[in-house]
């Protein structure tokens, strides 16, 4: 079995809980296994540019009969055709761009709701809970960030007072700050990852913006808290179950015992994804074709939800949750219905 996603690089903080969630499932399986399952890490750094060569490497290794990942949407789009051609079954615990399910890849599966669910949920929260009257929408030009921001913009069309695009890796967002302030927005939505969000919110606050900052799952990482006081009050949406949910209590306890920390974003979803493959291995499956059939027909309770897939690989059950940065911590608020 393999993990495909960022082990290092600017988004490694989001990759680590996924790596460890799958690792826990494999370690638990191997405790009683007659034949141990190996776990290989393919470090894409979350980059679409790195993904094709790594996917080719995975596809060429017939001993890999299941992949937890790819972790991000951009690398999923780049690697997906290669996995499909190689017949490599994949279950992503974290890639949320809706179009990934529209490519006809029979090997693609997603263990969480996509942005066609998260986007409207974020828009609903902004409209109904925050009561925003003027929303400025920003994205980071990535497959994930731009796609999600576009959905939020469309759903909030009547209250959107401006939009802008930044680039991943940039550190000077002064032009964007000026546009936000000139728009009179009381709420900013950002579609992107935590590295840019951490800098952006600091510059927004320094520039005088005192409204609500709303982000999504790509920002739900402890590193975002490095923004300090500027991050307080940030709303984070995520199709990831809170570690405090009673349904994941046993998993969370085992995760903390093994890794010395609470489960991070998508750790539980990665645990579920890995266990799908492990259930197939437990039934004696040792090749990709049979594993793909097994995953396509899978319908069992995981720790995050009932796990089964539509023909296009989308999950049958979807949940989106809201979190707030409060007292220097990311605190769950509950499910957005």
Automatic annotation (TrEMBL):
CDD domains: PBP1_ABC_LIVBP-like (cd06342). Belongs to the leucine-binding protein family. It comes from Nocardioides antri. This is Branched-chain amino acid ABC transporter substrate-binding protein. The keyword Cell inner membrane does not apply. PANTHER family: AMINO ACID BINDING PROTEIN (PTHR47151:SF2), LEU/ILE/VAL-BINDING ABC TRANSPORTER SUBUNIT (PTHR47151). InterPro entries: Leu-bd, Peripla_BP_I. It holds the Pfam family Peripla_BP_6. Residues 3-326 form the Leucine-binding protein domain. Keywords: Signal. Gene3D superfamilies: 3.40.50.2300. The keyword Signal applies.
């Amino acid at each position: 079995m393999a993990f495909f996603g960022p082990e290092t690089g600017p988004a490694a903080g989001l990759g680590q809980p996924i790596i460890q969630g799958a690792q826990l499932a494999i370690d638990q399986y191997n405790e009683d296994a007659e034949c141990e399952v190996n776990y290989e890490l393919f470090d894409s750094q979350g980059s679409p540019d790195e993904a094709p060569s790594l996917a080719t490497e995975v596809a060429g290794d017939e001993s890999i009969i299941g992949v937890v990942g790819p972790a991000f949407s951009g690398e999923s789009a780049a690697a997906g055709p290669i996995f499909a051609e190689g017949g490599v079954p994949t279950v992503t615990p974290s890639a949320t761009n809706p179009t990934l399910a529209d490519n006809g890849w029979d090997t693609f599966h997603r263990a969480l709701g996509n942005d066609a669910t998260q986007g409207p949920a974020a828009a609903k929260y902004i409209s109904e809970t925050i009561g925003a009257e003027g929303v400025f929408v920003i994205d980071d030009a990535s497959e994930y960030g731009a796609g999600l921001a576009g959905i939020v913009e469309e759903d909030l069309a009547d209250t959107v007072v401006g939009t802008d695009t930044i680039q991943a890796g940039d550190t000077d967002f002064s032009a964007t700050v000026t546009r936000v302030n000139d728009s009179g927005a009381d709420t900013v939505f950002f579609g992107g990852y935590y590295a840019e969000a951490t800098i952006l919110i600091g510059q927004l606050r320094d520039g005088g913006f005192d409204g609500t900052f709303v982000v999504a799952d790509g920002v739900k990482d402890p590193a975002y808290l490095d923004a300090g006081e500027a991050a307080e009050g940030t709303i984070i949406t995520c199709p990831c179950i809170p570690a405090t949910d009673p349904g994941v209590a046993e998993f969370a306890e085992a995760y903390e015992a093994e890794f010395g920390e609470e489960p991070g974003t998508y750790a539980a979803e990665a645990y579920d994804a890995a266990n799908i493959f492990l259930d197939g291995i437990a039934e004696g499956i040792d090749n990709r074709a049979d594993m793909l059939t097994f995953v396509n027909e899978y319908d069992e309770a995981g720790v995050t939800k009932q796990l089964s897939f539509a023909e296009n690989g989308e999950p049958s059950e979807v949940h989106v949750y809201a979190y707030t940065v409060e007292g220097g911590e990311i605190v769950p608020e509950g499910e957005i219905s």
